[in-house]
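REQUEST FORM: STRUCTURE PREDICTION
Request ID: SP-0412
Submitted by: Lab K.M.
Chain count: 1
Length (residues): 406
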Amino acid sequence: MMVFYIDPGTGSMLFSIVIGLVTMLYFVGKAAFIKLKFVLSGGKAVANGDRYSFVIYSEGERYWNVFKPVVEEFERRQIPVLFYTSSEHDPIFSEEFTHVKAEFIGEGNKAFTRLNFLEADVCLMTTPGLDVYQLKRSRGVKHYSHILHSPGDATTYRLFGLDYFDSVLLTGEYQKAHLRLLEEKRNIQVKDLEVVGCPYLDVLQEKVSSLKVASDKPYTVLVAPSWGPSGILSRYGKELLDPLVETGFTIIVRPHPQSFQSEKDVLDTLKSRYEQKSNLKWDSNRENLTSLSQADIMISDFSGVIFDYAFLFNRPFMYVKADFDALPYDAYDIEEEPWTFRVLNEIGLELKPESFSAIKQVLLDASENELLTENRQKARETAWQYRGKSGERVVDYLLEKQKNLN
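STATUS: Completed
RESULT:
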C-alpha cells in the first residue's frame, strides 16, 4: 500500500486553494440566487438575514482583555455584535450581555473555514496574516480591522502580518511610521491607521487600582522570562537562580505559559533543584498581576511583560539581552531598529552574565536609578496613548467606518 506524506506547508497551501475555490463558488452562487429572488419578487428588495454589521473574532481566552473594553462599549451603546471565539472557555460566555452574541466556532482550520464564509460590514480581530495563510478575506466582508494587543512595534509580526488589513488600530502614534514605510516598499494598499490606545492595559490598570500589597513585605524579585532557547531559564537557569536565592530576597519565578509545554524538562530540573529553598516561589497563575504587584524589581529578557510591569507599576527592571533575528518578521524590511528594543536601555538596565555573582548589589543599585523612572513615564506616554479610553475610541472608529461603507 502506498502512503503519501504531505508536509504542513503543502497542506496549508492545499487548504487555502480548496477553501478559495469553495468560497468563490459559494458567493457566486449566492449572488445568482439573490438576483433570481429579486426578479421573482417583482423588483422588491431581498433581505439577507445572514449578514452582520459588526463581528469580532478572538483566538481564545488570552485575548479577552483586548476585546473586553470594546465589547462593553458596544453593549453600553446597545449595538448588536457577533463575537466569534476559538475557545470554549472564553470569559465572554460568563458575561450577561444583551446586545453581544457569543459563539464558539472551533479552532484552527475549522475556525478559518467559518470566517472565510463570513458576511459582515466590519470584522475586528487580533489575528495577523490575513490573506497570507489559511485565513482568507471573505468576499462577504467589507472591512477588516486589526487591533494590536501590545504597545510594542507593529512590525514585530511575522512577515506580511498586517499587509492586507483595511485598517490597523494602534496603541501609539509612533507605530505609524514603520507601517507606512512597509506600504511604500511593498507597493500595497494604504491602510487606515487609527490610534485608539491599548485595551488590555486599560483593563489591567483598573485591576491594579484594587490590588492591595503589604508595605512591610520582604524585598521581592520577579523573574519573568520569555520561552525558548533564548529565554533566561533555558540559557542560564541555575547560573542566575543560584545567586538570586543566596541574596535572601524573596524570588518569584514566573515562566512563560508556553514554557510548561516547550521546555518542561528545564522547568522540572529547576523546580527540583530549589525544592527546599523557602525564599523561591513558582507562579503559574493565568494572570500575572499578583506577581507584578508584589515585585520590587523584575528580571526579564525580550518578553512583552516588560511593558506591562514598567507601564502599570513604573518600577525598575533588568533585562538579559537576547539576539533578535528579524528575518522572519516585518521588521526585517525596516532599516531602523524597532522601538521596542531601542527603548529598553532607556527604561531598564541590562543584566550581564558576568554580573550574576554580584547580583544583590546590582539589583539594589538599579532600584535607586531615578532617571529610569522618568524615562519609563515618557515611554508609557509614547506607546500607551488615550489611557482608559480605548474601548470608546475603537467603537467610535468602527461605527464611523461602517457608516461610510454603507
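NOTES: DSSP finds 16 helices and 13 strands in the chain.
Reviewed by: T.R.
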